[in-house]
């Protein structure tokens, strides 16, 4: 393996090296067939097998029940902000949203185009430093669904457990899908852009309970109906072939690495190491409240913006890349998705301790 830097980018983000190696080989010559993977017709039997395998591995890794469809769509996770309400709401229908950051804010804005939206919780005043504590919001019983973002990539907060409500749950899991065990049967729709825990940008995975496919109002365009893609096995039009193929490779890697339970343990350990460094030095301060801390994105501050800039520059110099926080909150952020190696976390922790001693 050539020397690689540690890439703390929030997404697109680091991928397992064996996946990159296999993809590089298959782009040139897929399965020794004398044709590159991205030259294959999406309707060829070779590529159909790639899609089927990717879907089967998603189902296996996440234990997706049989009454759910797994779809490979385009338009990024952001297109789900309108596709969800477009397909599940309609004139006079209601939904409840929990506002825990930039991505839920954007989803709320889109949903308001399609129905009556109740924002039952917001941590905006506290700079989105937490998710709700238990059920500290009221769900309008007329709500068709309750929408929340399971992990807030920018603010570094994460639901440790999911809302216990009667309504159908809809969740944007873009930045923590496959990082921990979840009970899919509690959800109506789960969606996630691939570019963090699943593969490269370009495909969005949607997991939807079959009975919801028929709720779509008449006036929704064909391409924007979940049912269109469900009926055609995500082959209604040309799908994002390369991204789907990579998702399959990442799912295979996840399976041989021990699956979600092993990954969850590793993720807990990796995150604990960084939070310990934050808490023990007294030099760093974490953005998220303790109970809301994310295991995927750790947002933190140093005493001054000048020290933050120095920290990021010195870290970059020693191969710890992508630690600059999102422009909306500044500071630093370490994104440590499934494929991020423990050695990189150790290197960051060592650097944090050294930097605190030298500058504290
Ligand atoms: C939680 C979450 N939702 C949605 C998005 C938007 O994804 P996309 O760029 O695929 O539209 C992101 C991007 O980082 C995200 O972190």
Explained architecture:
The structure is a single chain. The chain has 360 residues and is α/β, with parallel strands linked by helices. It folds into two domains: 17-256, Type I PLP-dependent aspartate aminotransferase-like (Major domain) (Aspartate Aminotransferase, domain 2), CATH 3.40.640; 258-359, Aspartate Aminotransferase, domain 1 (Alpha-Beta Complex). 36% of the residues lie in helices and 18% in strands. The chain has nine helices and 14 strands. The protein has helices at residues 17-28, 45-62, 76-88, 102-111, 226-231, 241-256, 259-281, 305-317, 342-359; strands at residues 6-7, 68-73, 94-99, 116-122, 143-149, 151-152, 157-158, 168-172, 187-193, 204-209, 285-286, 297-301, 320-321, 332-335. The strands form four sheets. The chain has a seven-stranded mixed β-sheet with strand order 2-10-9-8-5-3-4, sandwiched between helices. Helix 4 links the parallel strand 3 (94-99) and strand 4 (116-122). Helix 1 (17-28) crosses helix 6, helix 2 packs across helix 6 and helix 7 (259-281) packs parallel to helix 9. The protein is globular and about 65 Å long. It starts with 5 loop residues before the first strand and ends with a helix. 45% of the residues are buried. Pyridoxal-5'-phosphate (PLP) is lined by residues 11, 76-78, 103, 149, 153, 172, 174-175, 193.
């Amino acid at each position: 393996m050539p020397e690689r830097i540690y890439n703390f980018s929030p997404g697109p983000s680091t991928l397992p090296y064996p996946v990159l190696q296999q993809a590089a080989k298959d782009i040139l010559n897929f399965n020794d067939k004398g044709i590159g993977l991205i030259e294959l017709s999406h309707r060829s039997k070779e590529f159909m097998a790639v899609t089927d395998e990717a879907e089967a591995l998603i189902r296996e890794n996440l234990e997706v029940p049989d009454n759910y469809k797994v779809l490979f769509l385009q338009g990024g996770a952001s297109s789900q902000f309108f596709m969800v309400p477009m397909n599940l709401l309609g004139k006079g229908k209601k939904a409840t949203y929990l506002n825990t950051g930039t991505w839920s804010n954007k989803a709320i804005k889109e949903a308001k185009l399609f129905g009556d939206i109740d924002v039952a919780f917001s941590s905006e005043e506290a700079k989105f430093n937490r998710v709700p504590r238990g059920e500290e919001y009221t769900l309008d019983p007329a709500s068709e669904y309750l929408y929340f973002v399971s992990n807030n990539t920018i603010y570094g907060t994460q639901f440790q457990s999911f809302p216990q409500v009667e309504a159908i749950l809809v969740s944007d899991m873009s930045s923590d899908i496959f990082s921990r065990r979840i009970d899919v049967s509690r959800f109506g729709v789960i969606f996630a852009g691939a570019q963090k825990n699943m593969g490269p940008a370009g495909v969005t995975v949607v997991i939807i309970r079959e009975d919801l496919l028929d709720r779509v109002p008449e006036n929704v365009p064909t391409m924007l109906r979940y049912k269109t893609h469900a009926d055609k096995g995500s082959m209604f039009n040309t799908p994002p072939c390369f991204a789907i193929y990579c998702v399959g490779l990442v799912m295979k890697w996840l399976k041989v690495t021990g699956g979600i339970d092993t990954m969850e343990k590793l993720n807990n350990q990796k995150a604990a190491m960084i939070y310990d460094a934050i808490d023990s030095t007294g030099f760093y301060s974490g953005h998220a409240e303790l109970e809301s801390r994310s295991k995927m994105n750790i947002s933190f501050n140093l005493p001054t913006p000048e020290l933050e800039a120095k920290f990021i520059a010195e870290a970059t110099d020693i191969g710890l890349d992508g630690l600059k926080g999102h422009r909306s909150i500044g500071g630093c952020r370490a994104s440590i998705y499934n494929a991020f190696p423990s050695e990189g976390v150790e290197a960051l922790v060592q650097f944090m301790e050294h930097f605190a001693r030298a500058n504290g």
